[in-house]
Amino acid sequence: MSDPTFFAKPKPASLAEIASWTGARLAEGNAAYVRIEGVGPLDLAGPGDLTFLDNKKYLGELAATRASACLINPRFADRVPEGVVALETNEPYRAFATAVAKLYPAAMRLEGPSARRRGRSRRAHMCIPPPGSSRA
User: Measuring CA to CA, how many Å separate 118 from each of 15, 19, 84, 107, 110?
Assistant: First the structure.
């Protein structure tokens, strides 16, 4: 089986730091010092990982996630399973992209010849949508 890792493990960040980066609200104040060491989708995230929920069709995966924390719209926050810290935000997808960019800065670095020109490299790994924009 191939290794799904694209980047080296990030320097761990606290949920307080992630909340600061994303503008998310920590549902549990005592969880501010929980350390995040990676990211993943709801179904694959485990202890130490951050995940997100932005679509109600994934509520089943939310119920089974083993992630340490989840960026989530406040309307779904009551569905976060025990043991998973909710970070409430009206834009979970954007907040997740922001957190990933902070945790994995190499993902935002332009590579190749187009890195010398204005614009985005064809090899750029991530794009953070502007606030209020549609993902579609």
Answer: 34, 31, 41, 17, 10
For residue 86, list its beta bridge partners. 70
Q: Which residues contact 32 (CB under 8 A, 6 or more apart)?
A: 14, 15, 16, 19, 26
Please report which residue ranges of 1-136 form alpha helices under DSSP H. Answer: 15-22, 59-64, 92-103
pLDDT of res. 3: 44
Report the distance separating Cα 99 and Cα 84, nearest Å.
17
- Alpha-carbon dihedral sign for residues 123, 125, 131, 136: positive
Task: Please tell me the pTM assigned to this model.
Answer: 0.76
